[in-house]
Write a structure and sequence with these properties.
The complex is a heterotrimer of chains A (113), B (140) and C (495).
Chain A (H helix, E strand, L loop, with lengths): L1 H19 L4 H22 L20 H32 L15
Helix pairs in contact in A: 1-2, 2-3
Chain B lengths: L5 H24 L7 H18 L2 H7 L4 H21 L9 E6 L3 E6 L1 H25 L2
Antiparallel strand pairs in B: 1-2
Helix pairs in contact in B: 1-2, 2-5, 4-5
Chain C lengths: L6 H13 L6 H29 L2 E4 L10 E4 L1 H24 L2 H5 L2 H17 L3 H19 L5 H32 L4 H11 L3 H18 L8 H6 L3 H26 L4 H25 L3 H22 L2 H32 L15 H15 L6 H14 L3 H26 L18 H16 L1 H16 L2 H8 L4
Antiparallel strand pairs in C: 1-2
Helix pairs in contact in C: 1-2, 1-5, 2-3, 3-5, 3-11, 3-14, 3-18, 3-19, 5-6, 6-7, 6-11, 7-9, 8-20, 9-11, 11-13, 11-14, 12-13, 12-17, 13-14, 13-16, 13-17, 14-15, 14-16, 14-18, 14-19, 15-17, 15-18, 16-17
Classes of the chains: A mainly alpha (113), B mainly alpha (140), C mainly alpha (495).
């Protein structure tokens, strides 16, 4: 199971990197979010995918899974939610102010030299 | 521009309240069971976004004149405030405590200080999400 | 008492939150920001003296015990850095009053600055790798907001690059944390230090060490990963540039400091050699940039990169003298970079341009600014008895002790060229033919002088008062060389 998940994480990384390397701002933003999700999946996988009940007090199970990676991943997801929504607004502002939806229109500086 | 979206508007009037209710249920369900401020907040903002889609921005703003930026600030005050409380009880920062209280109608319930923290998270998430959506949605 | 340790994070956080409530009252915003940063300095100085007297202080958040919960560790290195941070924040906030513009002030400028400081202090104090990640994200989010603040065209262009680069590096940070947790089963720095020294020089640990070097190298602008820095530090207003140059790269450097001294200290033949080579190349690249550019802002920005090389050379040398030197240089660099950026900000206001070719004869109307620049230029290059000297001296001694003579030579040459790059600003910009008559002067810089004088005085004190500073720095270096005290303070006596 860990192998499959690792491959999936790698796949998400590939997709994310491919999207980040394209020119379109929206694709770059989606790519960055896919990339973070690949990292989160890896975090969950690396801690070991054990069989056990969810770490909740209400369940009276014999074994529980390790709660720490889940706490970490939750934090990481919330952070990437915040960052992604920020980049969306930033990308939108960039488009509004510069009129550029692609990165090659953003190249160079406006200073006169 | 005039769209004829009677179906969406009628359904939204009904559905959005269901989503609100479920969001509140999820919010109080947190701490011991899956749920809590973050997804409760996201769900509430989903209901608000549905309202924004069905009606236009002005109508929603007239119905609910809330300044979402201030909402973020209030949420943060709740979040940090629960931590600061530990200074007065000389326990480590962010310590939590709980107790059982008797409510009319509802009966015996467990209340924790984490609930205040979660309320902070809830308000911050709703405030932040709605600020972003309004910023992008405002100018055509 | 141990709750006090959260205050360097909590005060700016609360200050930022409260400021959210009255964004349009600019005067109130200014007064509030100024008062809270004064309080922050007081608390930090108190903590510093307390820790020097009573040893390392720890705070287990929420009462969860050390290896399981998140722990804050106040050793002298961490608190020295938070103190310096607060000392630099105050003048930068004062400088913002007259330079940043009311439009920006109304859009939560001071709140973002405060959140940034909270993140920086948190990153210095934390004793948990994942918490370090969280603090990084806090300060990065604040910096994203600041770098694009005001939404001018060039700012938006550069901020998009900056954000994407940092998102990718954060993803790598999460991956590094994942591997580390898989291999060692803990994320507490003290316990990591123990577990890694038990397993010894396993190749997988070395791989993780390199992964973290990439992550922190990206944040700290180490050689192949510095490419985002010149653009993004030079486009925002100088007050923001100053706080970035003073603090942001330093957090990355600090993290390398921590992880490479107390955790990844087994397979030094690989990890520290790579660090050594990279630091040398960073110095060379930085100095080339500093000499090549004719724009005063860019000259300074490349000097930030040179300093990264200097400090990490101390980490790579891995002995107590080099650590003392590196810490001393790190502290002084925070102060002097802030000072230089503020001076350049005043200079650009006075000259109306950031191009060297467009300015000249500033000394005629602004003699005080000129001499302040002269002093800080010498301090930057490490001319005795000014602030940069003790750090550089100890770095050279430590480097020679470790036998890295070539890099020491590179460092000496780089220092000379750094001096050349800033003295050129002095000669062309401040001396030379006046390009503007008095009537054409672009604005008064009187209100900008007090913070500059304060920072330069602080830098001079760090040089002349090196005797006073030494015990603090010495004890900071000791905790890095000998992590046992750190481990015991965090995990209790059984270690």
């Amino acid at each position: 199971m860990e192998i499959i998940m690792s491959i999936l994480a790698g796949f998400l990384f590939t997709v994310g990197l491919y999207l980040i390397l394209t020119k379109n701002l929206i694709r770059i933003i989606i790519g960055s979010s896919v990339l973070s999700h690949g990292a989160h999946l890896l975090l969950l996988t690396m801690a070991g995918l054990k069989t056990g009940a969810p770490p909740l007090l209400g369940l009276n199970a014999d074994t529980y899974v390790d709660p720490l990676p889940q706490a970490l991943i939750l934090t990481a997801i919330v952070i990437s939610f915040g960052v992604t929504s920020f980049i969306l607004v930033l990308g939108y502002r960039t488009y509004k102010v510069t009129g550029a939806a692609e990165t090659d229109q953003l190249r160079g500086t406006d200073t006169d030299e | 521009m005039k769209y004829n979206d009677v179906i969406l508007q009628t359904v939204t009037k009904f559905i959005s309240f269901l989503i609100f209710l479920f969001a509140i249920y999820i919010f109080f369900n947190g701490h011991q069971e899956p749920g809590g401020g973050f997804i409760g907040g996201l769900m509430t903002s989903a209901a608000l976004v549905l309202l924004l889609l069905a009606f236009d921005m002005e109508t929603v703003r007239r119905a609910m004149p809330i300044d979402y930026k201030t909402m973020i600030a209030i949420g943060l005050v709740f979040g940090v405030g629960t931590g600061v409380g530990s200074f007065f009880f000389s326990t480590p920062f962010l310590s939590q405590t709980f107790g059982y209280f008797h409510f009319p109608v509802l009966g015996e319930l467990e209340l924790t200080t984490t609930l205040a923290f979660d309320l902070g998270v809830y308000l911050t998430v709703v405030g932040a999400t709605m600020t972003i959506i309004q910023t992008i949605g405002e100018d055509k | 008492m141990s709750n006090w340790l959260i205050l360097p994070v909590l005060i700016p956080l609360i200050a930022g939150i409260v400021a959210l409530f009255f964004p349009k009252r600019v005067t109130a915003q200014r007064i509030w920001a100024f008062i809270t940063s004064l309080i922050l300095i007081g608390v930090n100085v108190f903590l510093l003296t307390y820790i020097l007297a009573n040893g390392i202080m720890t705070l287990e958040l929420g009462g969860w015990e050390a290896p399981f919960g998140i722990v804050l560790v106040g050793d002298s290195l961490a608190v020295l850095l938070t103190t310096t941070t607060s000392l630099v924040t105050l003048p930068i906030i004062y400088f913002s009053f007259s330079t940043i513009g009311v439009g920006r002030e109304k859009y939560y400028y001071y709140s973002f600055i405060q959140f940034l400081i909270a993140g920086v202090s948190g990153a210095f104090l934390t004793g948990d790798i994942f918490n370090l990640f969280v603090c990084f994200e806090v300060l990065l989010l604040a910096s994203y907001a600041l770098i694009g603040h005001g939404s001018t065209k060039t700012q938006l262009k550069e901020s998009f690059n900056y954000v994407i680069v940092n998102v990718v590096s954060s993803a790598f940070f999460v991956i590094g944390v994942a591997y580390l947790y898989a291999v060692t089963g803990t994320l507490n720095m003290a316990q990591l230090s123990q577990r890694v020294s038990e397993t010894g020089a396993e190749p997988i640990i070395t791989v993780i060490a390199i992964l973290f070097l990439i992550v922190f190298g990206l944040k700290g602008a180490l050689f192949p990963l510095y490419f985002w820095l010149p653009g993004s530090y030079s486009v925002p207003p100088t007050a923001i540039g100053a706080i970035f140059a003073a603090l942001l790269t330093k957090v990355g450097i600090y993290s390398i400091f921590r992880t490479y001294s107390i955790i990844f200290n087994e397979d030094t033949a690989v990890t520290h050699t790579i660090l050594l080579v990279l630091s040398a190349v960073t110095m060379i690249i930085g100095v080339i940039g500093a000499i090549a550019y004719r724009d005063v802002k860019l000259i300074l920005v490349y000097n930030v990169i040179v300093a990264v090389g200097f400090i990490l050379f101390g980490v790579a040398s891995l002995n107590s003298d080099a650590f003392v030197g590196a810490i001393y240089y790190l502290l002084h660099d925070i102060v002097i970079k802030a000072a230089l950026f503020l001076i350049i900000g005043a200079l650009i206001t006075a000259a109306g341009t950031s191009k060297l070719s467009g300015m000249g004869g500033i000394i005629k109307h602004h003699p005080l600014l000129t001499w302040m620049f002269f002093i800080s230029a010498l301090a930057l290059a490490g001319v005795p008895p000014l602030g940069g000297f003790p750090g550089k001296l100890m770095l050279v001694v430590g480097g020679a002790e470790a036998g890295h003579y070539i890099v020491v030579a590179v460092m000496m040459i780089a220092s000379l060229l750094v001096l050349f790059s800033v003295i050129r600003i002095f000669l062309q910009g401040f001396l030379g033919e006046p390009k503007l008559t008095h009537a054409e002067q672009h604005g008064s810089i009187k209100a900008q002088m007090p913070p500059i004088v304060f920072l330069v005085a602080l830098s001079v004190f760090m040089g002349i008062g090196a005797e006073v500073m030494y015990p603090f720095v010495e004890s900071a270096a000791q905790t890095l060389i000998n992590p046992q005290a750190y481990i015991e303070a965090v995990l209790g006596g059984e270690a």
